[in-house]
Amino acid sequence: MAKGLLMTYALWAVGGPAGLHHLYLGRDSHALLWMLTLGGGGLGWLWEFWKLPSFVAQANRAQEQRQSSGRGTPPLSLIRFVAQMIVGIYFGLVALISLSFMASFYIVGLPLAVGLGVLLVAAIGNQTSDLKKTLGAAFLTSPIFYGRPIAILPISLAASITAQKHRRYKPSVGSETLSVRLYRLGLAYLAFTGPLVYSALCNTAVTVNYVADTLGSFLSWFSFFPLFGRLLESVLLLPFRAWKLLIGDHGISSSYFQEWEKLYEFVHSFQDEKRQLALQVFGLSEGATNEEIHGRYRELVKTWHPDHNQHQMEEAQRHFLEIQAAYDVLRQPRTPRGSWRWEETSL
């Protein structure tokens, strides 16, 4: 049955962030992505306004297009590659928040989550990629950065490169009933949101700490690009700012966004607390210069290196790891407190 452009626009307007128009067009992977990201944070949903005619045309000629193009290779798409990277990182962050209690998380859980995020984007539209090779790249990259949240970034990069290298058109398949498609989407949605909801409801305090630590680690990746880091903070705070622009400080529901603001205050206070502990390890005070930090680091490493403390090996290893962790914290440039805020006068 031919798909109508008017119906597609109506579903886009009514339930676009939930992917209803993609479900109508048979683009189940795209629908699931929108369900899990609320339309790409709303930005992807708005951008699609100009893309809907091409989506409808592609859906109406999908059978012929797949049969005629199945033997070739889809053109390389920079937008799809970047989207794979972003969604892979997003899936990895959600897994880090909700599943990091697993004993084998960094070996199994994290690469699986990132790889599935990359594959979800790879399967949008009339394209797909090799499941085994993409997940294999994710699992092979994971041990290199074992135990560190920054592992999400190289895992997503490796999986995205592999998915692009092995991209292909989807084969022609028979149409499935709507109930079967909804059942499959429902299972995928529950698999993604279930652990996160459980952590939030049953272990709230620990989950908030995970969120703060994960966001802090994520933003610290861009410490060498402070302008880009602040841009990311602004994007993450977009719901809070949009609400204040619409209703100001009034309204019952504004308390929800006040909690959102408190979370970011907690992130900054958490980072400040880690810096204070690191300064205590180094025996320095606030305001110490980079030269002082580096000089103190070299002194402590020389003093507590396990090779120089064979008689107290266990204690030396503990101090040595503590010094390394403190140095990693102190090397990161500080974001001015409150830099993500808008002044009240601007609102």
* Fraction in helix: over 70%
User: Uncertain regions: pLDDT < 50 for 5+ in a row?
Assistant: 66-70, 250-257, 336-347
SSE class? mainly alpha
Compute the average pLDDT. 77
Q: Please give the largest β-sheet.
A: 2 strands, antiparallel
Describe the global form. elongated
Q: How much β-strand is present in the residues?
A: under 5%
Distance between the termini: 50 Å
Which properties best describe this structure?
mainly alpha, two-stranded antiparallel sheet, 70% helix, disordered C terminus, 347 residues
What does this protein look like?
- By secondary structure, the protein is mostly helical.
- 70% of the residues lie in helices and 1% in strands.
- The chain has 17 helices and 2 strands.
- Helix 8 (105-122) packs across helix 10 and helix 14 crosses helix 15 (254-282).
- The protein is elongated, with a radius of gyration of 24 Å.
- Residues 66-70, 250-257 and 336-347 have low confidence and may be disordered.
